[in-house]
Design goal:
There is one protein chain. It is built from 6 helices and 10 strands; from the N terminus they run E-E-E-H-E-E-H-E-H-H-E-H-E-H-E-E. With 199 residues, the chain is an alpha/beta fold. It has a domain of 139 residues: P-loop containing nucleotide triphosphate hydrolases (Rossmann fold, 3-Layer(aba) Sandwich). The chain has a 6-stranded mixed sheet, with helices on both faces. The longest helix is centred in the last third of the chain and has 16 residues.
């Protein structure tokens, strides 16, 4: 039985002690003002920033896995994704994400198109499509719809909703309480690097 994401006594330069459990199909919304530590918490979980504490995914400890394998199992999509190649096609070398890209309204984007020519919202949706194509066991999303119009936001939520129902382990930072309600996310507030409430 999959137990989800368990975070015990996690600390970093920004994050005070955090103890969180995110169960399959019971997603968590990280809420809090800008600079409160939402991004820092997710970066610590995926081990991008120096941190201490125990993180486990489906009973497997992060400390017992190599960093590449851990970041394959638990995928973090930042609010401003980084791009290593100049063209869209440079990022389509992994698992096929065509179906997901179509669901996110990205059919018009061609492989030879420059990343720099995409809008902020298109880049945000493309990053999500690429993350989902990797079929992660857990997904950490940092404001995935912040730069999107209502139609594009609805596409993202429509894509995520059945995945959540199927047992996706999801943690998502959002400033939109209505979005948290629509996706059935349990609200977890962060203030000054301290997690308030329980998940």
């Amino acid at each position: 039985m999959k137990t989800g994401l368990e975070i015990r006594h996690l600390t970093s330069a920004i994050i005070d002690v955090a103890d969180i459990a995110v169960r399959p199909g019971a997603p968590v919304a990280l809420v809090g003002r800008s600079g409160s530590g939402k991004s820092s918490l997710m970066r610590a979980i995926v081990d991008l920033d120096r941190n201490e504490g125990e993180v486990m995914l489906h009973g497997v400890s992060r400390s017992g896995m190599s960093a590449p394998l851990w970041r394959q199992a638990i995928v973090y999509v930042p609010a401003e994704p980084g791009w290593w190649g100049e063209r869209v096609g440079d990022h389509l070398t992994g698992p096929d994400s065509a179906e997901t890209r179509s669901a996110l309204g990205l059919d018009h984007i061609q492989p030879d198109q420059s990343i720099d020519r995409l809008s902020t919202g298109e880049r945000q949706r493309l990053a999500l499509a690429l993350a989902l194509a990797r079929q992660p066991q857990a997904l950490l999303l940092d404001e995935p719809t912040a730069a999107l119009d209502e139609t594009s936001r609805d596409m993202v939520e429509t894509l995520l909703d059945p995945m959540i129902a199927a047992g996706l382990v999801l943690m998502m930072a959002t400033h939109d309480p209505e979005q948290a309600r629509r996706l059935g996310l349990q609200r977890l507030e962060i203030d000054g690097g301290r997690v308030r409430g329980e998940a």
